[in-house]
Amino acid sequence: MPDTSNLKLTITFTDPNLDEDEKNEEVQKLLAQMQDLDEVETVDRVVKPNTLLGTKSVTGWVAAQVIAFVNPENVKQMWGFLSDRLANKLIELEAEANGKKVKIKASSQQELEAAVKAIQELLNPE
C-alpha cells in the first residue's frame, strides 16, 4: 500500500533585489493567504533551529521561508493557487514526500510548472 503522508513543502523567497524585510513581507502575505485554504493541512513560518543571542533575528523564524503540509489529494488545487501567486517571483521550492526530496529554483511560470511536475513525481512514483 502506498504511503499517503502529507507533502511537506518549503517555499523560500530568494530574490536578491529584495531585502530581508521585503522577503518577510512576501512570506507574511503568502502565509495569510495559505491559512485560509482548505487544501493546506498546516502552514507556518520555518522555525530557526538555534537562534543565538545577539543575532539580528529576534523572532526565531528563518527569514523568507514558509512551510506547509498538504494532503496529496489536494496538491493539484494547491498548485493552482501557488501558480497564481508565485509565477514571476524568485523562489526555491523544497518538497518531501514518500521518503524522497526534491529542491527546485523557479523564477518564471515555465520553471514553476517544471517544479510542479517534479514534485508530482514524488507523490506518484512509477
Write a compact overview of the structure shown.
This protein is of the alpha+beta class. It has helices at 20-35, 75-86, 109-123, and strands spanning 7-13, 40-47, 61-70, 91-97, 100-106. It has one domain (7-123): Alpha-Beta Plaits.
Properties at a glance:
5 strands, Alpha-Beta Plaits, 126 residues, 5-stranded antiparallel β-sheet
Report on this structure.
It is a single chain. This protein has a single domain, classed as 2-Layer Sandwich (Alpha-Beta Plaits), CATH 3.30.70. The chain has a 5-stranded antiparallel β-sheet. A hairpin with a 2-residue loop joins β4 (91-97) and β5. The longest helix has 16 residues, at 20-35. The chain is built from 3 helices and 5 strands; from the N terminus they run βαββαββα. The protein is globular. The model has no long low-confidence stretch (mean pLDDT 82). Helices cover 34% and strands 31% of the residues. It has 126 residues and is an alpha+beta fold.
| CATH architecture descriptor text | 2-Layer Sandwich
Number of helices: 3
Structural class: alpha+beta
Strand content: 25-35%
Q: What is the H/E string? A: EHEEHEEH
Spatial strand sequence of the major β-sheet: 2-3-1-4-5
How many discrete domains? 1
What radius of gyration results from the CA coordinates?
A: 15 Å
Shape: globular
SSE arrangement:
Blueprint: E1 7-13, H1 20-35, E2 40-47, E3 61-70, H2 75-86, E4 91-97, E5 100-106, H3 109-123
Antiparallel strand pairs: 1-3, 1-4, 2-3, 4-5
